Amino acid sequence: MQRRSRKAALWGATVAAVMVAAGPLSQAHAAPRPDPTPPSARGMLDAMRRDLGLTPDQARVRLAQEAEAQRAAVAVRRVLSAPPAGMWFDKTTGKLVVAVTGAADAKRVRDAGAVPRTVKHSHDALTVLVRRIADRAGEGVPGVTGWGVDERANGVVVDVDRRSRVAETDTFEKVVRDLAAPGRIPVRVARTDRAPRQQAGTVVGGEKWSPGNEGICSIGFSVTGSSAYKGFVTAGHCTNNADQVAYGKDGSRIGTSNEGGNHSVNGREGDFGLVDVTGTGWTLTPDVAGQGGAPVTVTGSQDGVVGTSVCRSGEASGWHCGEITRTDQTVDYGTDVVEGLSFTNSCSAPGDSGGSYVTQPGDPQAVGIHSGGNSATCGSGGDTLTIFQPVNEALAKWNLTLKTGA
């Protein structure tokens, strides 16, 4: 219940304001005027057009709509006394859709600038069913890779890897379906051929760091704390061992990973860790390595909304964009069961673990820390899945402040 109480506390927090619409993109004229769009924003727009298949005009319109949806999301969280049954960006209408169970909340949502959708099952009812599924799964079921709320369907989804199915998998599926008998909350079984996995492999998000001799990971975001503390957040599975020397991309000592053994979470509570930055010459920046390495400066943090675009930076595969497809999901990586993760359809590769997820060029907000993905990497083709840990939970856990720029 520790996760639920912390989420309830975070729910009422006001999310940082998001960008205004980006300026015009460069145009083909005999004597072109200077493009007012900052280089980092142009890099994000280029990556979004490439990865989401958008034209320049479509990208500009999409970002303006998402900015308005994020403002509406902040307003909705403020006016509702409890989390809605679901919330997502509808790219066909360009509006934020909010699932509610009563007329009073529908009016509040409409007044906040979003589109209400009346549904049968409340957020609390969905959460109870997810918890019952987690209790039945225990420490894991062969072939079952995760579960969580399916916001658009007002139900629950269970993920299954076809290649790992055994008799126990079938039995678990039957149990889950019995929990959702006719007239109850619908449960969908999503089958895939690619199981998720944790991808371990100046301080700038998305750049390389190494925990001792254990492999390669990526920096998430620079943070500060009490008593002049300096550090960065990254994936918890990169910081499992206490008091490891942390090395930067140039091989020099950047600081200490999981100092004291109480700054790493990798299990039910989440997948996030902390590295102290104490190495000589290392300073914190609010930057994330963007398209072609160009810095993207984060200006705040916010919770991800299903359907909105997001860009990811990691040392192995660089800068890629996609859409958030699910939030608050439980993932069974085979080694650890982790709750509260979000899915995107971007691509990634081993070594990207711990890297940065940001939204909205022009006013980039920190959203998450890379946790894992499936076997489809950025160059392999096929359906891609990347998974991130919401960054606000890591900030709240250790009372950290995100390093931000203008």
Rg (CA only): 21 Å
pLDDT average, as an integer? Answer: 86
Low-pLDDT ranges: 1-36
Q: Give the total of beta strands.
A: 26
What overall form do the CA principal axes indicate? globular
Number of helices: 7
N-to-C terminal Cα separation, in Å?
37 Å
The main β sheet shows up as:
9 strands, antiparallel
Give the % helix: 10-25%
Going by helix content, strand content and strand pairing, the class is alpha+beta
Report the β-strand fraction as a percent range. Answer: 25-35%
In short:
By secondary structure, this protein is of the alpha+beta class. Helix content is 23%, strand content 34%.
Q: Could you describe the 3D structure shown?
A:
The protein is an alpha+beta fold and 406 residues long. Helices cover 23% and strands 34% of the residues. A hairpin with a 4-residue loop joins β4 (144-150) and β5 (155-161). The longest helix is centred in the first third of the chain and has 24 residues, at 56-79. The two termini are 37 Å apart. Mean pLDDT is 86; it is low at 1-36.
